[in-house]
Amino acid sequence: MTSEDEHLVSTLELWHLGWTRVVNRSKDYKICLFELEGELVKLWIDADACPVQIKDLISLRCHKNQIEAVFVANSQLKVAESPFISFVKIADGPDVADAYIAAHAESGDIVVTQDIPLAGQLVPKNIVVITPRGDLFSEHNINEALAGRDLMTNLREQSTAYGIAPVSGGPPPFDQKQKRAFANHLDAAIQRLKR
């Protein structure tokens, strides 16, 4: 699948979500508030493991397009100064940020996370989920992603239990191709809001 095909698929998936735009616009100030059926749309970021380049890109896009972005992390995080960007510091612990995002994200919102189980909770709620590496989770691929994650977890556990060298490795280093893929999905989501 080419990047153009992936962009088209993501745009079509967003179209099926029924995003609408209610605009309050001043020609002088270009003030826009994005809404989905009367609710302000937010972008939630699982910020603990999100690359700095992606955090910066999100901050720029959200400030420029006047969309609220909420960074959620269990450690202090410096965010861009903007009325559209905020930070929520949550308690330490496994999956605490995920639980916070799952409890607060609403239908039509966008969530940036690489946590597949969190994506599995959000996609059925009509929430757009993009990984920092540029993957878009949807109802068409979330079950496959969950199954792959579970398989790798089981392989790691079994290799440890039987004294076999653990299945290791991880994703390749973050690169410009992944940053572009993420930017394309984020821009498609924002453009869908503008229609």
Task: Describe the 3D structure.
With 195 residues, the protein is α/β, with parallel strands linked by helices. The protein has one domain: Rossmann fold, CATH 3.40.50. Helices cover 43% and strands 14% of the residues. The protein is built from six helices and eight strands. The protein has helices at 3-16, 52-65, 96-104, 116-122, 142-161, 176-194, and strands at residues 35-36, 39-40, 42-46, 68-73, 85-89, 110-112, 128-130, 136-137. Strands 5-4-3-6-7-8 form a six-stranded mixed beta sheet, with helices on both faces. Strands 1-2 form a two-stranded antiparallel ribbon. The chain is globular, with a radius of gyration of 18 Å.
Write a concise synopsis of the structure shown.
With 195 residues, the protein is of the alpha/beta class. The protein contains six helices and eight strands, in the order H-E-E-E-H-E-E-H-E-H-E-E-H-H. Helix content is 43%, strand content 14%.
> Helicity, in percent?
40-55%
Question: How many structural domains does the protein architecture include?
Answer: 1
N-to-C order of helices and strands: HEEEHEEHEHEEHH
Low-confidence stretches: 1-38
End-to-end span in angstroms?
26 Å
Total of helices = 6
**Inertia-based shape:** globular
